[in-house]
Amino acid sequence: MKRFLLLLLILFTINISAQTDAETLKTIYTTSLTNGKSYEWLDYLSNQIGGRLSGSLNAEKAVAYTKEELEKLGLDKVWLQPVMVPKWVRGAPEYAYIETGPGKTTTVNICALGGSIATPYGGLKANVVEVQGIEELKKLGEANIKGKIVFYNRPMQADLIQTFEAYGGCVDQRYAGAMEAAKLGAVGVIVRSMNLRLDDFPHTGSMTYGDLPNSKRIPSAAISTNDAETLSTMLALDKNVKFFFSQSCRQLADVQSYNVIGEITGSQYPNEYIIVGGHLDSWDLGDGSHDDGAGVVQSMDVLRLLKESGIKPKRSIRVVLFMNEENGLRGATKYAEVAKQKGENHIFSLESDAGGFTPRGFSFDCSDAVFSKIESWKPLFKPYLIHYFEQGGSGADVGPLKTETNVLAGLRPDSQRYFDHHHAANDTFEHVNKRELELGAATMTALVYLFDTYGIAPISNSNQIKD
Amino acid sequence: MKRFLLLLLILFTINISAQTDAETLKTIYTTSLTNGKSYEWLDYLSNQIGGRLSGSLNAEKAVAYTKEELEKLGLDKVWLQPVMVPKWVRGAPEYAYIETGPGKTTTVNICALGGSIATPYGGLKANVVEVQGIEELKKLGEANIKGKIVFYNRPMQADLIQTFEAYGGCVDQRYAGAMEAAKLGAVGVIVRSMNLRLDDFPHTGSMTYGDLPNSKRIPSAAISTNDAETLSTMLALDKNVKFFFSQSCRQLADVQSYNVIGEITGSQYPNEYIIVGGHLDSWDLGDGSHDDGAGVVQSMDVLRLLKESGIKPKRSIRVVLFMNEENGLRGATKYAEVAKQKGENHIFSLESDAGGFTPRGFSFDCSDAVFSKIESWKPLFKPYLIHYFEQGGSGADVGPLKTETNVLAGLRPDSQRYFDHHHAANDTFEHVNKRELELGAATMTALVYLFDTYGIAPISNSNQIKD
């Protein structure tokens, strides 16, 4: 019986080797769409665990759950990589209103930005200065800012096709807005949510005080886009309207956490590593389904789909679930540090951290020569409507692994809906479509298969795709 | 003052003519994303009017509303084209259960298929035969079918990337299932909903009795995918489970309705027509936002966006809002009939009837020579992530306009979520994303602009794109 099974295994392996790359991709996509696990895992992560802010109990539950699930896959190794992470807690729900006169108040939706300090006990009320950004703030200067709440209201640019570009053009207000306003004597900061849609959800996200001493730090919060419009309108009618907000968030001491790692060890080049990953932590307002539960479960499924498709990798393939991308990047830093110490050759690192929407392709951080090789694979993806192969940034978590010769990449899903949900209470499971998630997992697996098969050496006759 | 305005107009026109095509497309997309009207129109159509089944009061409201809105745009002509349409009404809500024994019943979610007859007064209860399709039904033959309810349960094929293909592979069960089962003596038909997702929504849609006399017709309904799974499982456990359903739908006499048409008359070739359209009627369960409110408002916005972008068409551009696509195609038939009578040369007809999701491209029904010309325009669309230019079907409403020389096309949005909503109670406004809808309108406008500029004559030096 054992011999029979061995024979079957050999026949099966030969069969896979004889497949063209196009056939292997077909097997991968079919397996993901008919027998994928990513959606089931995401259901658990989102609905049984929920938001997974670094240092929280939920983050630790997510570590335990994903480790356990990876252990069920029969990988060669699964382990936890310890890393200390910051622990910021939101505290009691925030409260805010616009005051147009004595007793005349309009409640608005805000949330503290991640890393912000609390308002003074009982809240903070002050006049408001609306600005379109840090440049305008600096022009206004201390005379106009001192003692006031600064309201950053530059919206995301609607006519940019790729919404991440619009985000990049606005996020400085959220990240550095409080620091810059504090330097000019502001008492608080309110930032228009990074959201292209008009709705009632405030969107949190990381911010920094830079080198500001504790005594100079001021509280900052995001306001929903609808309420940003309301506040702006009220200010246009009367410069003297006041804004009140109250939040009780704080930064605690760092706590122990982990990156979760699983590996299929390579059969021919075990010291060449290919990794796929997403970040296990999320913000606390929603359940982090798109950011980045999707990337986590897709990355886990890449290793499973390789196995299910009968692919035996030549190189070592790892899934890395990074801890603390949102407010510290400690997991990614630690992973790269350890990889360097061990002299591990990470030839290709792929990140999925742009939502679980229909995949459109990848952006690649690599040399022109290697990119030409990668572009030669593009026709293989056409049946799956994957068309976007561009040189560009990859992702925050794989970034620290960059060398002169290796390749980093980021999955690029359709981005139109992403910022409707990003860092907000409506980043929840029901907004993820099963097929779109599975198509993403398949697309990542297909790319990993090709990198495993052909490596990153410049193109030659010996590594033409099999068609 | 008048002379000054004229001068301004001339300068503006010259300015537009001097633009490269790439610049014109940029203007179109920016206008749609920052100053589009499609989402506002859809909000009204969906939330103030709602489902618009042919012959219903809502359908007439939609005719009046869209005509009024088109009249506000300053087009050269806006008119109603009369057409008689069928009027099928659902009646009281359907009710159904699975009976596993005396008093042991499980309620399930069904809806009558469009065009079905009612069950007998008090409902219909019978044993069930599950089949995977019409072929299996025929194999089973009258002996196994007579007196029973036929349950068509072939699911949509999950591993097809384009969901419309999966729909095409299943919809015969819904359309012809009752007719074929009736021929073998079945008393009723239940069809698994055309939905790739497991959920509780039954999805309606058209069906036919062909030439069957009234006395031979049997009622047919769709069952939700979750309940189809339940019924199938129960049948596997016990072949003798019974199914009960009750529905009171009926077909009334035809009523008067209209296609709604608006036109910008061409400045150079007024007798060459380019049309864009969607269908104004919808099913009655949801509000028809994706099917086809999206196509209606996008088509309306094409004419508006041309005007807003300062484009003065050489050819006549029409928006046609077709009545009765869902259960008769009477509007499309009428439009094509009148066009033929009048000898109107419809060189290009574009339909949007695949949902308001992120546009990916178009499929074109045309000769290879013209397709080569169209393909030469593809690079212009790359900045907008439009990559899908393929020869293939166009759409039901523009189909009757086909000639040997002209071009038909269908907008091809991302199709992954479409059948989650198609013909079901959850085809509603909140499932349409504003940007995705606007990108679709812009993409249609861009293509119309190019057809207006270069016509459909085979490519020559004189009609190279301006870059």
TrEMBL record, chains A, B:
SUPFAM superfamilies per UniProt: Zn-dependent exopeptidases (SSF53187)
User: Which PANTHER family does the protein's record reference?
Assistant: CARBOXYPEPTIDASE Q (PTHR12053:SF3), PROTEASE FAMILY M28 PLASMA GLUTAMATE CARBOXYPEPTIDASE-RELATED (PTHR12053)
Q: Which residues form the signal peptide?
A: 1-18
Could you list this entry's UniProt keywords, alphabetically sorted. Carboxypeptidase, Endoplasmic reticulum, Glycoprotein, Golgi apparatus, Hydrolase, Lysosome, Metal-binding, Metalloprotease, Protease, Secreted, Signal, Zinc, Zymogen
| Taxonomic superkingdom | Bacteria
Q: Name the chain's protein.
A: Carboxypeptidase Q
Report quaternary structure and partners: Homodimer. The monomeric form is inactive while the homodimer is active.
Keyword Acyltransferase assigned to the entry: answer is no
Query: Principal localization?
Result: endoplasmic reticulum
Q: Which residues form the Peptidase M28 domain?
A: 259-445
